[in-house]
Design brief:
38% helix; 349 residues; 10 helices; five-stranded antiparallel β-sheet
């Protein structure tokens, strides 16, 4: 049918159960779906979006009265969506025969697409997402929709990824985990844990669970676990134990450490801030961090080279300085070994 018949129809009224923003999101998702599928039964579209057949019919009628006005400020036939009305009304089949504005949507830059694809590749590297068709399809769409060809990025699987698969298996099955664990102080031991949930902090993964050794809820870094075994023993109920909303919780034994940090790097320390107080000192912000021990401070400072300086307490400064000196000594030893080999091995001389 022609545009005159289409223009004579009135848009359906929004139902009270669906708010305007939700309806807009639904329509924005429905149009690309119809264009990609080309020919779609109403019932098939309803099943895909989890709505009623009538909701799809009403949405299609609304789409058919939508468009962009032309240069004259009025709507001409080619300024509106159009569908095959005979197929829609007689066969309950949706076919969009003319669309507008969709091709003018802004595209991701090659760098933006590459960043998103890198994140998806990391997800596909996890054992539970291996050969995921949905992730592969999304990466293909990001590649095709970018303004230029994104840089190819590879993500290697790590030992922590294999451990994560076993941990998630234990969480889903409600079974205890046993593993060897070496904490930040270098103390190792065998742990038996009732796993509760898996969380991530930056590039690190953590297991939150009830530790039968400590008789309390603890956090375990996945890359410090080894020899994991999913037990056949079901987890115990712990109604008196509350799993904290955040990964790190303060305690009376925590150490307060004062550091000077570059303003741009302050958001990276948000999880460790003791309070919101910050004082400007020589272009840096002086803040107080709350840490479980000074050993965790070493890794934190190493991740902010030139951006953070430990001010106090003295034992924290000494720990970081000693750790840095040990690292430098390692480079010096390596250089001496190379020079010794050069003196004793004539090579091509």
């Amino acid at each position: 049918m022609n545009a005159n018949r289409r223009g004579a129809q009135k848009p359906p009224k929004a139902t009270r159960a669906q708010k305007a923003p939700d309806k807009l999101v639904f329509l924005l998702a429905l149009v690309p779906y119809l264009l990609e599928r080309q020919v779609v039964d109403v019932a098939e579209a309803a099943a895909h979006f989890g709505v009623s057949d009538d909701a799809i019919r009403d949405a299609v009628k609304l789409i058919a009265t939508s468009g962009l006005p032309g240069a004259t400020g009025t709507y001409q036939p080619n300024d509106l969506f159009d569908i095959d009305w005979d197929s829609f009304e007689d066969d309950d089949v949706i076919v969009i025969v003319h669309h507008v504005a969709i091709d003018d949507a802004p595209r991701l830059s090659a760098r933006e697409a590459a960043a998103l694809i890198a994140g998806l590749k990391y997800l596909t590297a996890l054992p539970e997402n291996a050969n995921s068709a949905s992730l592969a399809s999304l990466m293909a769409k990001l590649t095709a929709g970018a303004s230029a060809i994104p840089t190819r990025i590879g993500v290697a699987e790590t030992e922590a990824d294999e451990s994560l698969a076993l941990i998630r298996e234990a969480v889903a099955g409600g079974r205890q985990l046993e593993f060897d664990y070496r904490n930040a102080l270098g103390i190792a031991g065998r742990r038996r844990v009732d796993p509760m949930r898996v969380l991530s902090q930056d590039a690190d993964w953590y297991l939150q669970g009830y530790c039968h050794t400590r008789e309390d809820v603890r956090n375990f870094r996945v890359d410090r676990m080894s020899a994991l075994v999913v037990s056949e023993v079901p987890i115990d109920e712990h109604p008196d134990r509350v799993v904290p909303e955040t990964l790190f919780q303060g305690s009376d034994s925590d150490l307060d450490v004062v550091v000077d940090v570059a303003p741009a790097a302050l958001p990276l320390l948000a999880d460790y801030l003791a309070d919101s107080t910050a004082t400007e000192v020589d272009g840096h912000l002086r803040v107080t961090l709350r840490l479980a021990h000074v050993h965790g401070l070493k890794r934190l400072v190493a991740g902010l080279p030139g951006l953070a300086t430990v001010v106090s307490p003295p034992e924290a400064r000494a720990a970081v300085a000693g750790w840095a000196e040990a690292g430098l000594a390692g480079y010096a030893d390596a250089g001496s070994s190379v020079r010794d080999r050069e003196r004793t091995d004539p090579g091509d001389r």
